[in-house]
Amino acid sequence: MTDIKAMLPEELEAALKELGQPKYRAGQIFDWLNRGVQSFDEMSNLPKALREQLSERYYINSLTCLRKQVSQEDGTIKYLWQLRDGNAVETVVMRYKYGNTVCISSQVGCRQGCAFCASTIGGLVRSLEPSEMLDEVLYSQMESGLPIGHIVLMGIGEPLDNFDNVMRFLQLVNHPKGMNIGMRHISLSTCGLIEKFDKLADYHLQLTLSVSLHAPDDETRSRIMPANRGRGVEALVDACQRYYEKTGRRISFEYAMIDGVNDTPYHAKLLAKHARRVCAHVNLIPLNHVEESPFAPSKPENLKAFMKILQDAGVNATVRRKLGGDIDASCGQLRKKLAMK
Ligand code: SAH
Q: Which of 96 and 340 is assigned the larger pLDDT?
């Protein structure tokens, strides 16, 4: 059985041609899939014989909502979706002035091992399929009734560790005949798998690349982010520069402020140097609470002093507003879960 939701309209056309069907059927099917139908029988404008043929060859992926939490503070919604194989991942819908944004997971668990992040506890189970990521967006929109205009790949998992599936997902969700979400409304966040940066740049996508930097020197970064070991900050900033030159898209540096770990003036000055070199925007994130983690958020006065050093150096920096604090829906707090639990 083939996953029909992973297919682009032109691939559907070719498959339908083999079944002796006209081209326009592909458009009809793609349209139904992007409206979230769960069976071929719901595709009421297709002949019954074709619906039967399709159901013998293809399956339609879907998600089941295991839990929905709504923040009392700001209306942020956190979903726990069950996948076909019983695994489950979390997805968050945030309501910003400029539109509704969905934060999706790209893997069940994560193998990157960042010391401050809940998503990596228990390691990687598997990568998500393109249709599963599409369904995170589609089902979040259908279930919440909120039209989704923006996507951030900032949930569980490392998108560049699931490169091919993420690229196909982007093609699907960006397709004018599908959800049609513009690349400029999509951000992809990575812990810095630099060997994939050049490959990504070759696609010339208009999306925003967010790099989870979190420390500007190898000693600190390798301590809290194993992905830095054997790669290094210099090589990462080099890769960012190549990416920026190739795509013309400004990179954003994510920086979780951790008390006594990465929040001294020394760190701020070095961060400013890197950011200026590649014209990056810096997003400071007060560290979010993770029960298993020994780290605490930076003190407000240190955050302020840090910000001032960046601004004085001419760096474009903002402090990220925290949403969904009462439902553990913030950066680094999403977890893979087993449906049975
Ligand atoms: N693997 C990708 C995608 C995850 S995005 C990446 O590393 O970028 C999730 C973002 O939240 C990353 O920037 C991550 O470093 C950050 N994060 C993880 N734990 C956090 C925490 N406890 N507080 C604040 N940010 C955190």
A: 96
DSSP one-letter code for 298: P
What is the pTM (predicted TM-score) of this model?
0.97
What is the helix (H) or strand (E) element at residue 126, kind and residue range? strand 124-127
Tell whether ligand 1 has an atom less than 6 A from the beta carbon of residue 200. no
Bigger pLDDT: 63 vs 97: 63
Nearest CA to ligand 1 atom 26: 332
Within 8 A by CB and 6+ apart from 268, the residues are 305, 306, 309, 310
In the reported structure, the alpha carbon of residue 157 is separated from the centroid of ligand 1 by a whole-number distance in angstroms of: 9
Of 189, 284, 298, 323, which is best to mutate to test ligand 1, by the most ligand atoms within 8 angstroms of its C-beta?
A: 189
Q: Give me the pLDDT at residue 237, please.
A: 98
Whether the per-residue pLDDT at 335 is higher than 90: the answer is no
Rounded to whole angstroms, the Cα distance separating 286 from 19 reads 56
Residue labelled with tokens 């001032």? 308
Mean pLDDT of 96-117: 96
Angstrom CA distances, 326 to 156, 180, 192, 198, 250, stand at: 19, 32, 30, 39, 32
Give 20 Cα–ligand 1 centroid separation in angstroms.
49
